[in-house]
Design brief:
The protein is an all-alpha fold and about 280 residues long. The protein has 13 helices and two strands, in the order H-H-H-E-H-H-H-H-H-H-H-H-H-H-E. It is globular and about 55 Å long.
């Protein structure tokens, strides 16, 4: 338990530091280049979380070769939301005990703030035995990402600082710098993606519509769906957790699903699973 408490304290310090670092934008200012990089990294890493961590690793809602599986898990790991094994284990537990006592991030159990971010500051989320992800342990490349997670996070920070410094040297007219790129491309982009993802746990169990019987308080929330590339169709997901598509109606924009369809056309993924009685006309 001491190890879990230590990890929780490290996370508290690290997440607080990330939030404070965002105020560095007051000093660095902003440039179009920094905004483009921040936006691109938000989108790419969000897709890694939604398609890689969530729909592939946690739910096996489609199939992919090991190189593609590794790439998606790598992008998800870059989101700085925990390693792939840790993330997947907690998400599977969320579905097993949704809104019950064993669900560590349910607003029905300990309120909105705990469900949104507080659970990651609690030693309990680092004390599990992770027996629910034995199927993923057969992939050494996924275990490698889990073990090297901290170095991946630090590597991103170094890369973005170096990118900004290089652009400042090669094209000073762009108005960026190493520190500016670090603040916008790494800290602000990461914190924004954190809170968008965390809203699926908190907001999507309190506000929105519940068109499907799912046995819990999961809701569809259009704003969260837009911010998370389709994850906000949370009630749909809890009703059909195995589905690769979360936005099941034509008007329910699910950018991750569109990305998976594109990857299927490129033969990068296959066997996209859908509900047996899919409310939407499209099939894969």
């Amino acid at each position: 338990m001491r190890k879990a408490q230590y990890k929780a304290r490290v996370v508290i310090v690290a997440m607080t530091a990330f939030h404070l670092a965002c105020f560095g934008a007051i000093y660095t200012g902003v440039s179009t280049t920094a905004l483009i990089v921040a936006g691109a990294l938000y989108f790419i890493r969000a897709f890694g979380v939604t398609a890689g961590f969530h729909r592939l690793l946690a739910h096996s809602s489609f199939s992919a070769s090991r190189p593609v599986r590794f790439l998606l898990a790598f992008l998800g790991s870059c989101a700085t939301q925990g390693g792939p094994l840790w993330w997947t284990s907690h998400h599977r537990r969320h579905h097993r005990y949704s809104d019950q006592e064993g669900d560590v991030h349910s607003p029905m159990q300990r309120g909105f703030l705990y469900a949104h971010i507080g659970w990651m500051w609690d030693a309990v989320c680092f004390s599990g035995n992770y027996t629910n992800i034995k199927d993923l342990h057969r992939y050494p490349e996924i275990r490698f990402l889990q073990k090297g997670y901290v170095f991946l996070v630090l590597g991103q920070a170094c890369f973005l600082f170096g990118l900004g410094a290089l652009l400042n040297w090669l094209a000073p007219g762009l108005g960026t710098s190493g520190l500016q790129m670090l603040v916008w491309g790494f800290f602000i982009s990461t914190v924004a993606l954190w809170h968008a993802t965390f809203m699926v746990n908190s907001v999507c169990h309190l506000w929105g519509t519940r068109p499907n019987p799912a046995g819990d308080s999961s809701r569809n929330n259009v704003l969260v769906a837009l911010l998370t590339l389709g994850e906000g169709w949370h009630n749909n997901h809890h009703r059909w957790a195995y589905s690769a598509r979360h936005g099941l109606r034509w008007w329910q924009l699910d950018i991750t699903w569109l990305g998976l369809l594109m990857m299927k056309q490129l033969r990068l993924v296959r066997d996209l699973r859908l509900p047996a009685r899919n409310p939407a006309p499209a099939r894969a």
